[in-house]
Specification:
By secondary structure, the chain is an all-beta fold. Helix content is about 0%, strand content about 50%. The chain is built from no helices and 11 strands. The mean pLDDT is about 95.
């Protein structure tokens, strides 16, 4: 059974850091693109970052998080991470990881939920000022 489980969310002060984890079971994560999305109350799901399969390794970020967030893999743990630094109250949301349909993040649409086929349940991040 394909499953993605996020963890690492919590309450953090503005300017602080968090590291989110996305652990896969039932499939090998390193041959898939993995996207991170977030959804704040009353807002649409937003693409945050994408990391291509290990054979490509390219990464993409939303402008709103560029320079503050970093996506990475640990294939030995079948895990993808999202390091969140210098967080802001606007980063408050439920964060989801998702496994993509292709081996690489599309520069033309990695942020679209339709590019992904398996989703985790999410982990909540709350940033207070």
């Amino acid at each position: 059974q394909v499953q993605l489980v996020e963890s690492g969310g919590g309450l953090v002060q503005s300017g602080g850091s968090l590291r989110l984890s996305c652990v896969a079971s039932g499939f090998t994560l390193d041959v898939h693109t993995i996207g991170w999305f977030r959804q704040a109350p009353g807002k649409e799901r937003e693409g945050v970052s994408c990391i291509s399969s290990s054979s490509d390794g390219s990464t993409y970020y939303a402008d709103s998080v560029k320079g503050r967030f970093t996506v990475s893999r640990d294939n030995s743990k079948n895990t993808v991470y999202l390091q969140m630094n210098s967080v802001k109250p606007d980063d408050t949301a439920v964060y989801h990881c998702a496994a993509g349909r292709t081996y690489y993040c599309s520069g033309y649409g990695w942020w679209a939920p339709s590019e992904y086929e398996s989703w985790g349940q999410g982990t909540r991040v709350t940033v207070f000022s």
